[in-house]
Predict the structure.
Amino acid sequence: MQKKIKTRIYIDGANLYNGMKSKSNKLDYKKLFRFLSDKYHPEKIYIFIGYIKDTTSLYANLTKYGYKLIFKETLQKRNGEIKGNVDAELVVQALKDFYEINYDQAILISGDGDFSCLIKFWKEKTINIRILAPNKRSTSYLLRKENVSITYLDDPDILKFIKKDPR
């Protein structure tokens, strides 16, 4: 009997949102969860996101779809921009999961080069790694140089499964 592969998916919520927010590529989070579940059969899909009080209905929906939400307190800059960088939380959770459950496959959904250190860790631990980046233009060279397969979510063959229906 073949061993079941333990898979964890780690989503950088801000990077995903910012990379997929064009009108033609508007992301449907429910469809994304279904796509990821059907294709990779993960035990858990985390989404790391800055907490904004006015968007609690979004958080309720994400939880209802099946995501495990990890929040970071946000700060509002003087120019009104809201900042809630979740990179450290994502890396810590990935390391914690590795040492506690020893997963076989890790999927990172982000194009942020700050995660190249996590990719290096996974490579050292011989974890099967997949990167799903929102688009090519916002994918850091630091990730691209790690010699790991990168799939772009704005690829038409994937986008048809995960984008909102036009209204």
In short: The chain has seven helices and eight strands. The longest strand covers residues 44-51.
